[in-house]
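Re: [ENG-882] Designed sequences occasionally contain unexpected residues at chain ends

Forwarding the minimal case from QA. Structure tokens:
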């Protein structure tokens, strides 16, 4: 078992599981460190299976297993190549996504397709619910299915249609800045598509305020974009261009995530205040 990107001395749940089952475990700090390829090659692997990849894998390592290397990616490639394939479909308002098992090459998510699965993005799905409730369990099953296909000699290598490819950057804090003058659905998609990471943000009294759990209100707002139009135990409502957002969980600057009830009390937030 191979787990790069972690302190070699750190005891992780994966390492504990490997030790309990007498499975050889190698945990280098960087995949390109000296000796990593030699260590992998010493096991004479039949097949490499990558469940989580955040780096460009050297070609020598990709070619090391006798039957090749396969990799999980949380989108229906060639759409949403890149390291934030969970965020962007939600941010862009898509209603479907999926996963792909590919034979990785030296490009970024460009290798031939072994198999794909599709899932619905529900109107209230967040990155968290999409991954943990759907793409994670489906990914475990898909990798098992892919391994079986390789074992039986039936695993296809379907070239990706590069003309249909999309590639987005890593979704960082600068991509999650809320513009309250946008349509409410766009703001809602942005908040969902950055929850739990990196979080959508606005400003409150000159300080950054991240917004997480929320609810879309489609009726016409009763204030200007960014106005706090109502405050209750359930949360506070912020006006957008054509609707509103009921905010239910936030993270003030320098603090942890809290309910809006706590924030309203601590910050003395009231109707008529303004965000952004």
């Amino acid at each position: 078992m191979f787990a790069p990107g972690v302190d070699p001395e750190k005891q992780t749940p994966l390492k504990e599981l490997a030790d309990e089952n007498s499975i050889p475990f190698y945990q280098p700090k960087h995949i390109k460190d000296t000796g990593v390829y030699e260590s992998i090659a010493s096991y004479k692997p039949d097949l490499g299976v990558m469940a989580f990849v955040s780096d460009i894998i050297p070609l020598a390592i990709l070619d090391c297993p006798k039957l090749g290397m396969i990799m999980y990616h949380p989108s229906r490639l060639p759409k949403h190549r890149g390291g934030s394939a969970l965020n962007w479909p939600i941010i862009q308002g898509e209603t479907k996504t999926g996963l792909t098992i590919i034979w990785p090459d030296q490009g970024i998510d460009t290798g031939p397709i072994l198999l794909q699965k599709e899932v619905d993005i529900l109107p209230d799905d967040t990155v968290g619910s999409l991954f943990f409730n759907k793409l994670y369990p489906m990914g475990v099953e898909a990798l098992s299915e892919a391994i079986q296909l390789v074992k039986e000699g039936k695993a296809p290598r379907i070239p990706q249609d590069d003309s249909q490819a999309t590639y987005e950057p890593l979704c960082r804090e600068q991509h999650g800045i809320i513009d309250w003058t946008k349509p409410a659905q766009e703001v809602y998609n942005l908040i969902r598509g950055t929850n739990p990471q990196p979080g959508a943000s606005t400003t409150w009294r000159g300080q950054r305020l991240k917004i997480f759990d929320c609810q879309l209100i489609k009726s016409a707002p009763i204030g200007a974009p960014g106005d706090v139009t109502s405050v209750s135990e359930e949360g506070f409502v912020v006006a957008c261009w054509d609707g509103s957002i009921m905010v239910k969980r936030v993270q003030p600057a320098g603090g942890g995530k809290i309910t809006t009830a706590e924030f309203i009390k601590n910050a003395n937030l009231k109707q008529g205040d303004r965000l952004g």
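QA comment: On inspection the terminal residues look reasonable. The longest strand covers residues 113-120. Proposing we downgrade this to a documentation issue.
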